[in-house]
Amino acid sequence: MPTRRRVMSYGALLAGGATLAGCDDTGVQQATAQLQRRLALPGSVDGRERLRTLVHAATLAPSSHNTQCWRFVLGRDSIRIEPDTTRRCPAVDPDDHHLFVSLGCAIENLVLAALAHGLKAEPRIGADGRVDIALAPVRQQLATRYMAIPQRQTTRGPFDGRPLPAATWRQLEDTASGDGVTLRLVNDTARLERVLDAVAAGHRVQFSDAAFVDELVQWLRFDAGEAAASGDGLFVGCSGRPSLPPWLARRLVRRFLSAGAETDLAAEQLRSSAGVVIVASDGAAGPAGWIGVGRAFQRLALEATAAGLQLSLLNPPVEVAALRGPFAAAFGLGALRPDLVVRIGRGARRPDSLRRPLGAVIA
């Protein structure tokens, strides 16, 4: 799903390989990403161009492996969002849960953008997971969360370890509530270590699966040129790693992908976080419920961004089917399906990921 930035634990490979790339081209990538994230001024567009503006905001949402697994169909006074199943990730997401969560994130952005441009957006979810969004004129509303859309990112970097005030946690939880989700806050050391144990168990399962590793490597982008050419995927520079020539990196990367290295990184991430929010829902709700999870997560992410916070996802305990039940029980979620594990805190921004052009996502 939304946003989970898996990163290669290159170790010495990257330290030595950076010189092979000639230079670290993260700056080139970031300049392009910033241009892509410029939203049109409210009231500056109308007609079909206004619809394209709403789609632009929607595409700035997170998606699993940054696959951007959506398609948009523009009507006269409507927009349809469809899952792009050619971009599904069957190894990490065999039931398409993350795919539909990603659609929910995009829908939330679109609804906020519509209000900013004087339109009320009313999504209706079909049985096949397609979402028809009717648009009608309304008084313009420029919400704080809309302004946070271009700033929101998920970061694999460490946070500063400082706790958040109780009032901040309440605000985040209140913002994300609704859409059939249950939120569980974990911000004490003992329970955060239990989250880490579950993450480690998930990593052991996933990194022993060749199909999972192959799929992950498929979506990695090893330098700015490769990232720009595809406009999608996980650029290593977004995780603070130097670039490598793709021809070399793809030959060597599997030697450095391991459950142990990923768990060490997760330990640093969790122990530096202010806390974790577990998002859960009715496991039987299917795509409609998962879209609701995405909308709730995106509200949480945008509210956190507006408050000057960073966040990222540590989802192995909810991606490995055999671990979901024990993970839910450990955190008092009963029969609910744990959907997302979101760590939150204060930290430095990392480079932003790229997006494909609108022409590639509008039918």
UniProtKB/TrEMBL annotation:
Signal peptide: none
InterPro entries hit by this protein: Nitroreductase-like (IPR000415), Nitroreductase/BluB (IPR050627), TAT_signal (IPR006311)
Keyword annotations from UniProtKB, A to Z: Flavoprotein, FMN, Oxidoreductase
NCBIfam families in UniProt: Rv3131_FMN_oxido (NF047509)
Superkingdom of the organism of origin: Bacteria
SUPFAM superfamilies: FMN-dependent nitroreductase-like
Entry protein name: Nitroreductase family protein
Molecular-function annotations in GO: oxidoreductase activity
